[in-house]
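Notes continue from the previous slide.

Worked example: a multi-chain complex. Inputs as given:
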Amino acid sequence: MEAQYNFPVQEITESLTDVEKAILQLPLTYRQIFQMKFAWGYPNKEIAEVLNIREGTLRQRISRGKEILRNLLEEMEVYVDE
Amino acid sequence: MSEFRVDDDFLYECMPALEEKVLQAYREEKEQPHEFSSGFERKMRQLIKRMLQKERYGFPVTTVRRAAAVIVVAAGVMAASLSVEAVRDKLYEFVQTIYETYIETRYSVTEGTTGEFRPLYPTYIPEGYVSVIEDRDENFLVLSYEKEDENGLQGIVIVENYVTDGLLVSDDNEYVSESPVEILGCEGRMSRKEDGSIDVRWESKDCLFMVATDTLTEEEVLKVCNALK
């Protein structure tokens, strides 16, 4: 999967954990949602409003984003599903 | 090889740290000229305004995981005037902790459930305001209205918070003045701040009500309060 960076990732690569590197490899669509929800703490309703999508769609994307991240971590061998 | 699950808790832990690293990289990067579209700017202003409303009025952050976002609920804290009839005993009690800039109140229901939450919607909202947020669950309702004119973005926030066991409310106490008011037969209080904003709080039928606004007059605010029936 090709990453779509929108920030100077090269400058911070050295300080990143494997998990963070995997997150940065997520497609921008999912990473953006993760950022708003899990880093900024925005509620789903507002994220959906800003992105102009339905809350159901948002929940699907969150779920899909987690799935992609899970696969990325497995590929990087830093994840073991319980 | 480490073991973890890719769930909400995991992401709430990871994302803030990553965010900080990314922001740090931005700070170190040379500033680049950029210009957002007017539509984007407007949307961001609205979003920021709403987030400030949340901080100020305790609008519930459903993704309450980060400490910075842990503002549970804001609503009135006052001696209870249970209902217009006021014929039954109060079914809950509360403990208040007073801090420098806010008061925290934790409610505990003393006799099972207090009943059923029946949210009220205003039959009157001043002209020009449009509904922008309606967030409701089984014990909580927030309505937010906004109007934008030459004076900028103005808002009205209505919070209805049904008392349940363990409910925690956080109430700003940096008011310039307060005065008693009567809302639909219930005692309440009107609080004014230096910036001209007004909050009205009262309690009725095991529900804490708050109407907050930054630009309405006292008469207009009370009219909105009395329209919640």
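Summary box: Chain A has a mean pLDDT of 79. The domain at 17-75 of chain A is CATH 1.10.10.10 (Arc Repressor Mutant, subunit A).
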